[in-house]
Design brief:
Number of strands: 5
Structural class: alpha+beta
Number of helices: 2
Radius of gyration: 11 Å
Length: about 70
């Protein structure tokens, strides 16, 4: 299982599945991160939190705990 947190800076991945539950999953989906969408990792802070990503043309910051709940391929 490969998560969004495993993707290197500058790479793009396709979301395969969201493993979060309840409000956490809803928050991720509200950002526009859903199954089949392409996510580009722009920058990762020195300690890995947060990740700066581009989704559907929007630039977002994502906590590493949330990135672990996003399976990609």
């Amino acid at each position: 299982m490969k998560t969004l947190r495993d993707i290197s800076v500058g790479q793009t991945a396709t979301v395969k599945k969201l493993t979060g539950k309840g409000p956490v999953k809803r928050r991720i989906m509200d950002m526009g991160i859903t199954q089949g969408v392409r996510v580009h990792v722009r920058k990762v802070a020195p300690l890995g939190d947060p990740l700066e990503i581009t989704v559907r043309g929007y630039e977002l910051s994502l906590r590493k705990a949330d990135a672990d709940m996003i399976e990609v391929e």
